[in-house]
Every structure is written in structure tokens, then in C-alpha cells.
From TrEMBL:
This is Alkaline phosphatase D family protein. It comes from Streptomyces citrinus.
């Protein structure tokens, strides 16, 4: 069904006069459509300041978060919303003074840094505080104050010094958290887990309507407002949907416990979009308005640094983080720059169109950036957090040659360029972290997926969803056939949860953690499977 976006009339009018690519490059378009006129200003044009004493309800209903840890810096986030399910979060279009504190202890007896920042209405009263000149490799605690209100504390950490020989790191990978598909029980467990950092691999938000009972949550103690019972299209739509997700107490707890490193997939904007091509065949200029709204709301609601602030429908989300000499993380964006899916998307047999050298999943610039980063890497582990399945997945039905056109299987030339680049860069310990598919896989990355005896050049760890797909099952109906037709696939599980990966100087261990149900709260966590890959000898082995 085609959407009829209800964007501001002046934005829609401007979009109609722009060509497909000119939208992204023309300065005038950036001024009209990049929300450049909706950025905080100084002097007499600035929004009036709100007396914080007039805020009569807790403004920290969405919790707090930290992200993108650097050796001497942490990024702290919150968004003020005393009435989170109202447009504007229950605050007037006035700026609010927000105080922050950073301490060495969770009781804030040893506060080492404090400061003041401004929550601007143009950014939906979100704040992104970059605290610099900190000690590397250290745990810190933080909180915010507005008027007489004090947030609950959060815990974060800095990365080790870039040249240091950090001996260990435990990360968690999560993805796909459709609010309407169940409770965030996995996040409750993750908040209590001992990890250094969480990588969110996409689908933090879903654009689909949420019913008054919260979909599969089937609430009996509350009624969600009708504002959520429609697909997100406009900036206000996306802002309100983030508010719904972020009021979940288990998601709040996970963010408060660990720093997050985030990247988006498709549903933060729209299902299976590719670049400026949407799912429904709408004019690119119309879709790019929607994309600009989605990207703006994403930045406002995530612990991202200033370089990731969008300019209209464009945002530099791919970036590189270091964990001493132990690991380099190359975080990809496989939506914004990809060519359109071949063969009409979906599961199709490969064709010359899908196998063409012109097809690219991350875009040619990002491909070169990744390979160049590998060439200069001095890390023991080169880890690529990204969205869609990298390794080959043959259809489990014998004789069926269909592959997913939305994953790297639909862009094999792009995958081959990266594998050649990894070879040329002499990458020896390559690990790809993946989300998207609502199941967990452990797979060996083969140099040639058409040859089962081909050299293993890395490993792929695919995390299942937090909720998307509802409860699932440990062994889906195609479990046996899938494993048989894909010998490089060492593990396949269809329940919800997350994965932890412990990187060390001699090996890496992946633990796939699942819950039995998400349509009812309170399920226990279990480790469904564990695998190890050795430094210098890639390949997953069950433990």
C-alpha cells in the first residue's frame, strides 16, 4: 500500500522540484529539506528558556544512555519528556538547562566532572554530552539534573588506550526489537550480564502500527494512545515511536548498565529500503523526506556523537572504534548507500543483475573505507558490526537455488570485493557481527562459498532478535535441512535473545543466549550454544 506522507507543506513542495540525486547535493535543498532551518540558533532568534521549576513531572521517563566509547571520552545521552506520549514530550518549544555529573562511584561521592548543557526544542529536548580528557579503560557513573529532578544513574566506560595491549573484551550483540512482538525480557537479562559494550545491529525501531494493547504484549493494565496505531512517516511520528520504545523499563535498564554502539537497518525508516528507493515505489524525493525525518529522530534518540548528526536524508553512520590493540570495530551502514535489490527483492535465484559488479551493498565509498581500514589496522581482531547476513545461505529445500536478495547473497560482487580486500590486507582474525534475520547463526566465512573445502577466512556471528518474530522455536521446521545444505553453518536457533562474544589474545568465544518466550514476561535466560574460534586459525568449534 502506497503511503501519502503528511510532511510540512513547504517541504513537500520543495521536494517536488528536485531530481532523484539533486536532492542530496544542492545547497538549497539542504536548507529546505535538511531541517537546517530547524536547528538551534543563537542570539535573539534562539528559543526562550524554560524555568525548570515549572516542570512538575519526571522529565527522565526515557532513561539515559551512553555510547561510542573512546579512550579518553564518553558520550552521554538523555531526552526530556515528562509526558512522553505527547508531541513535544509534554514540554513547550523552549530550551531547558540540563546539568550532568560524572563520578567514579555509583553513589556519586567522588564526582570528577560536572557541567551544563542545553536541551533544545529543535532536537526534541535531547542532549548529547561529549565528556573528554578522561582516563582510558575506566568505568564511570553519570546522571542528569533538571530543576529539582535527578535521573537514575547510568554506568559507562572508556575504551583502553589505542596503543595498549588490552587482553580481553566481552561484547553483546542485539538486534530487532519490535515492541508489538513481545516483552524486552532479553534486555532485562542483558542489563545484569557482565559485558563491556553492546552493539545494536539495527531495527531498534519498527515503523508498523502498535495497537492499544501493545500487540503481542496484550496489555491488560494500560491502553496505549491511538497515536501509535499508524505507520511512522513524519518526524513527529518517529519521535513518538521512540518514546514508546524507550519507556520500556528493560530497555532503560540495558542502556543504563552498558555503553551502546548503534547502527541502523531498514525498519528505523521503512522495510527493505535501498538508498533513495522505498518499498512502495513512491517518488524518491517523497521518500527522502521520510528518510530525513527518520534519520533525524534516530540521532535525537541514540547515544551518537556530533559527526553522526544528519544533514537532511544523509548521515555518516559508518565509523571506526578501537579497543586498544585487541580489536578494531568497523561499524557499517548497509542501507543508505546500497543499490536497489535485484530481481524484485525477496528470495530469488541469482541472475546476471544480482551478480553484476555494479551492485553494492555498503556503497563503493564505504567498501573502500572498510578495506583501507583493514590495511592500516594493528588490531588482533578485526570485527565488522553490520546488519544483514554476510555468509551464503542456500535455501534449505533440496534443488531450490533461491537466495536472499536483501542480504549479501544478493550482492555477491560486493562481498567478493571485501573478501579480496581482506586477503590483500592480510586480515587473519576477521569476525562479522550480524542481526536482521530474527534467528541466530554461527557460520564460517568461506573464501569460496561454492566450495565447501574452501579456506575459512573468518567467522560470522548472527544474533537473534530481542522480540521480532514473537516467541520462535529452538529448532524451526527447516532446521535440519538448513544445516545440511549449508555445511559452513555450525549453529541455527530460532528463539529470542542475544549473543555475547568474549575476545581474547588466543581465542574468541561466542555464547548464544535465549529466552523461551517474549509474548509473556519473565522468561529465564539459557545458553543455547557456545563456540570458539582460535587466533590465527579461523573456524568455529562447539564447546
Amino acid at each position: 500500500m502506497s503511503h501519502i506522507p503528511q510532511h510540512a507543506p513547504e517541504l513537500r513542495a520543495a521536494a517536488q522540484h528536485l531530481g532523484r540525486r539533486r536532492f542530496l547535493t544542492v545547497t538549497g535543498a539542504a536548507a529546505a529539506l535538511a531541517f537546517a532551518t530547524n536547528l538551534p540558533t543563537g542570539g535573539t532568534a534562539a528559543a526562550a528558556e524554560l524555568d525548570a521549576a515549572k516542570i512538575k513531572a519526571d522529565p527522565f521517563t526515557l532513561g539515559l544512555a551512553s555510547g561510542d566509547p573512546l579512550p579518553g571520552s564518553v558520550l552521554l545521552w538523555t531526552r526530556l519528556a515528562p509526558s512522553p506520549y505527547e508531541t513535544g514530550g509534554g514540554l513547550p518549544a523552549e530550551r531547558v538547562e540540563v546539568r550532568w555529573e560524572l563520578a567514579l562511584d555509583e553513589r556519586f561521592r567522588r564526582v570528577i566532572r560536572r557541567g551544563t548543557t542545553t536541551a533544545h526544542p529543535e532536537f526534541n529536548h535531547s542532549v548529547h554530552v561529549e565528556v573528554d580528557h578522561l582516563a582510558p579503560g575506566r568505568v564511570y557513573y553519570y546522571r542528569f539534573r533538571v530543576g529539582g529532578w535527578v535521573s537514575a544513574p547510568g554506568r559507562t566506560r572508556t575504551a583502553p588506550a589505542t596503543a595498549s595491549h588490552a587482553s580481553a573484551l566481552t561484547l553483546a550483540a542485539v538486534s530487532c526489537q519490535a515492541y508489538h512482538d513481545g516483552y524486552y525480557t532479553a534486555y532485562k537479562h542483558l542489563a545484569e550480564d557482565d559485558v563491556d559494550v553492546v552493539f545494536h545491529l539495527g531495527d531498534y525501531l519498527y515503523e508498523y502500527a502498535v495497537t492499544s494493547v501493545g500487540g503481542a504484549r496484550n496489555y491488560t493494565d494500560r491502553v496505549l494512545p491511538a497515536v501509535f496505531a499508524k505507520e511512522t512517516v513524519t518526524l513527529d511520528d518517529y519521535r513518538l515511536r521512540y518514546a514508546l520504545y524507550k519507556t520500556d523499563p528493560d530497555l532503560i535498564a540495558a542502556h543504563a548498565a552498558h555503553p551502546f554502539v548503534v547502527t541502523w537497518d531498514d525498519h528505523e525508516t521503512e522495510n527493505n529500503y535501498a538508498g533513495d528507493v522505498d518499498e512502495n515505489g513512491n517518488p524518491p524525493a517523497e521518500f527522502l523526506l521520510r528518510r530525513a525525518s527518520a534519520y533525524r529522530a534516530y540521532w535525537e534518540n541514540q547515544p551518537l556523537r556530533r559527526p553522526q548528526l544528519p544533514t537532511g536524508p544523509d548521515a555518516q553512520l559508518y565509523r571506526r572504534l578501537q579497543w586498544g590493540r585487541l580489536a578494531q570495530f568497523d561499524i557499517l551502514d548497509t542501507r543508505q548507500y546500497r543499490t536497489d535489490q535485484a530481481n524484485g527483492d525477496g528470495w530469488k535465484s541469482p541472475t546476471p543483475e544480482s551478480e553484476a559488479a555494479s551492485q553494492t551493498l555498503p556503497g563503493f565509498t564505504q567498501e573502500r573505507w572498510l578495506i583501507d581500514g583493514w590495511r592500516h589496522s594493528r588490531a588482533l581482531w578485526n570485527v565488522v558490526p553490520q546488519q544483514v547476513t554476510f555468509s551464503r545461505r542456500n535455501n534449505p529445500a533440496a534443488g531450490n537455488t533461491t537466495l536472499s536478495m536483501d542480504s549479501w547473497d544478493g550482492y555477491p560482487a560486493s562481498r567478493e570485493r571485501l573478501l579480496k580486500g581482506a586477503d590483500a590486507a592480510r586480515v587473519r582474525n576477521l569476525m562479522v557481527l550480524t542481526g536482521d534475520v530474527h534467528v541466530s547463526y554461527a557460520m564460517d566465512i568461506k573464501r569460496d562459498f561454492d566450495d565447501a573445502d574452501s579456506r575459512t577466512v573468518g567467522t560470522e556471528i548472527v544474533t537473534t532478535s530481542i522480540t521480532s518474530g514473537k516467541d520462535g522455536s529452538a529448532r524451526p521446521s527447516n532446521w535440519a535441512n538448513y544445516l545440511a545444505r549449508n555445511p559452513h553453518m555450525k549453529h541455527y536457533d530460532g528463539q529470542r535473545g542475544y549473543v555475547t562474544v568474549a575476545l581474547g589474545e588466543e581465542s574468541a568465544r561466542a555464547d548464544f543466549k535465549t529466552v523461551s518466550a517474549v509474548t509473556t514476561p519473565g522468561a529465564a535466560l539459557r545458553t543455547a550454544a557456545s563456540f570458539v574460534t582460535e587466533v590465527g586459525d579461523q573456524g568455529l568449534h562447539s564447546v
